[in-house]
């Protein structure tokens, strides 16, 4: 799935069926369902991909200490760019790897 297809799927009522937990979390967050996104990110929190999304979610929530913990778990530096830019970067990288 391309980034464009992923973004187009945001018009759907449910995420595409083949998405892993990390991508499902990004999908639900883009829908405005932070709690559901957080649940998805936690389902595979040993995966650095899910940990990266988990970090983003806590950064968006404003819980920067918790976000920093999850960025460390993901092996990523704490993001400094705009939240929308980070969402796009995460989605593009995760889709490229799946």
Plain-language structure description:
By secondary structure, the protein is mostly helical. It has a single domain, classed as Alpha Horseshoe (Serine Threonine Protein Phosphatase 5, Tetratricopeptide repeat), CATH 1.25.40. Helices cover 67% and strands 0% of the residues. The chain is built from six helices and no strands. It has helices spanning 3-8, 21-30, 34-43, 48-61, 64-74, 83-97. Helix 2 (21-30) packs parallel to helix 4 and helix 4 (48-61) runs antiparallel to helix 5. The longest helix is centred in the last third of the chain and has 15 residues, at 83-97. The chain is globular and about 35 Å long. The model has no long low-confidence stretch (mean pLDDT 96).
Our count of helices gives 6
What structural class results from the helix and strand content?
A: mainly alpha
What is the CATH top level name? Mainly Alpha
The parts where pLDDT drops under 50 for at least 5 residues are none
Radius of gyration: 12 Å
Largest sheet descriptor: none
Helix-strand sequence: HHHHHH
How far is the first residue's CA from the last residue's CA? 8 Å
- By CATH, the architecture is named Alpha Horseshoe
Strand content: under 5%
What's the β-strand tally? 0
Number of domains: 1
- Silhouette: globular
* Proportion of helical residues: 55-70%
Provide the residue-averaged pLDDT.
96
In the CATH hierarchy, the third-tier topology is known as Serine Threonine Protein Phosphatase 5, Tetratricopeptide repeat
